[in-house]
Specification:
seven-stranded mixed β-sheet, homodimer, alpha/beta
Chain lengths: 402, 402
Amino acid sequence: MFRGDCIMARFSTFAQTLQADDIAEILALTQKPEVISFAGGLPAPELFPIEEMKKVDEAIYTEQGRQAVQYGPTQGYDLLREQLAARMKDKFFVDCTPDNIVITTGSQQALFILAQILLDKGDTVLMESPTYMGAIMAFDPSGPRYTTVSTDENGIVVEELEKVLASDDSIRMIYVIPEFQNPTGITWPVERRKAFMDVINKYDVVVLEDNPYGEIRYGIDKLPSLKSMDTQGKVVFMGSFSKTFMPGFRLGWIVAPDDVVDKFVKVKQSVDIGTSTFGQRQAAYFCKMYDMEAHIKQITDLYAKRRDLMCDSMEKYFPQEVKFNRPQGGLFTWVTLPEGIDAKALMRKAIAKNVAYVPGVIFYPNEGEVNHFRLNYSNMTEDRIVEGVKRLGELLHEELDK
Amino acid sequence: MFRGDCIMARFSTFAQTLQADDIAEILALTQKPEVISFAGGLPAPELFPIEEMKKVDEAIYTEQGRQAVQYGPTQGYDLLREQLAARMKDKFFVDCTPDNIVITTGSQQALFILAQILLDKGDTVLMESPTYMGAIMAFDPSGPRYTTVSTDENGIVVEELEKVLASDDSIRMIYVIPEFQNPTGITWPVERRKAFMDVINKYDVVVLEDNPYGEIRYGIDKLPSLKSMDTQGKVVFMGSFSKTFMPGFRLGWIVAPDDVVDKFVKVKQSVDIGTSTFGQRQAAYFCKMYDMEAHIKQITDLYAKRRDLMCDSMEKYFPQEVKFNRPQGGLFTWVTLPEGIDAKALMRKAIAKNVAYVPGVIFYPNEGEVNHFRLNYSNMTEDRIVEGVKRLGELLHEELDK
């Protein structure tokens, strides 16, 4: 086989835009065990139900045998779609049937395929700013432009949304994370959701409601999803098993109107034929054999404790000018430095102190504010949370007390 | 939730081309148990190693625990890539390292992502004609044009290939299946492979060598893959576990030069973040704990028997004017009717006799010959093979003896 530099000179125009990423290179340094990294977004592995999964897999092979490992329908495993239809009602107030549901290879795949079926090159996607960077990556291959609307402490600013929609008829898709947003941790109250739906109902747009964290809530009441308020078939809901169950199985789902399901399934067939038939049964059988709600309660109890510990430690160790939020769910808190401090520039100093975060600038689809960073608290033992925040506090004092 | 007709009027230009497919609708009729369907391409489920998999999963949970179900690296599980590097040497004469390998969510995903990174809208893909229809589906979202080169009983016609390449500088990618081709079952002899490489080395093109069937060979010697003859880093090899192991886990791989691996991994991250970390371990641990070669021998012994039975039955029951091949590996045989007989038009009559095939016309990227059909023999018990071929023979006699 040929080795060394490759002469494969020509990539697609899109692929040529994929360049080495300096932040990714810095984050690669955080893999060392001595670094306390708040940079990831991983769930707590100590709660993965490994012993239960041994029994789950055994039951799948015994009860389903060969069918569990053969090709399956592209739309997904019947039992799992039935369970999810019930779950959508119970957890998100959405009244749908299994026919409205497609199982995806993680909700990342949902983002990617929805962009493929909804966007032409040059169409505009409207997003919160900041927002999930993985969504931008999933939409990029379709070649859209991005326009943004600010968020306040209650989510997307609806007056600004209306102005932007009224002034730009190239907007075809709106991407939002209304619950425990990544990266800010913000949740939209029900009034904001209603106001949002009132606005978007006036325009010819599709809303992607990304909800991977909605079941990771710390004691606050369930809120109706945007999809539950959707009277015109304009909202596609995206859910995920990565935070409530285990991410390694790569399982997510969409809830969508019939015509979107039809196009989505056709494209999914050409993308991966279908999501692992065995993996789908692992989730379905776990839900059938064990108490998923009790499992989620374990997760939320642990994460609430870690959130408190992180926020309390920030109060103790961070300079007073540094602000942060205490999220009511999800995996992240968002830290705001005084204006003029660049969180990306500070990263190498943080890593020198063996602590890491993600600089906020990467979460902005267009130009962004530089004085934020995101901290993850789900994937870290309590002692390391305290020690890591303490190290960050030292760094911030050094910078701000200069 | 909104029900009924959807008002989501606007899909992407590409999605609008995805229309209802009359052949798919007819094939949906073949799901009834009374229909003997040779239309699929499924492996024989009776050889799936279900009891072994119980032990495999147990070992993964016990030895690897949480790591086996957490997010993993996008490029794939180390041990599996190491095993595959050795396998590539042993089975396909390719000298590569684990760094050249990316694990994919089935080889369908490899086709899709390679098109994304290699093709701009309007670029030309050169293909055998007929060829795997799933490749066309995977390439379509990138908006290419297709040009074709004829095949004879030894594969792609190299003289024609050279003429087409010399006359069309928009050709950027060549897609071929040199072993036990789907749908024709043809395998290129080594001389043809060498002549092919001599031609493509003169042009600035990338070759996708799709090889899902190469390990399903009936007693004939292994042949060097195109990738093993690649001195310029122009060939990307695609492999699959769907035929040798189990398709439900959705596991495939590519072997590619460094720069392709780099772009591929970046796009895969935005498509599904990574292939199931647990699924990858299911394949790796099966290879570690059991004798994969003995398992593949069981498969090839059974399929060779079924191929013989199908071909012998066709000799017995089909009219003499009907031709077919006796493939030396893979899952399919290709039947050629006398010119003027339309295999698609004949399909409804076949289904009325409770027997089904795939009409050949769907395997042509552009205009195609109508007097072929494809038969699968891997996924059918022996008595049903004989009975199905007998029914087809009756139909063909009725049509040809008119």
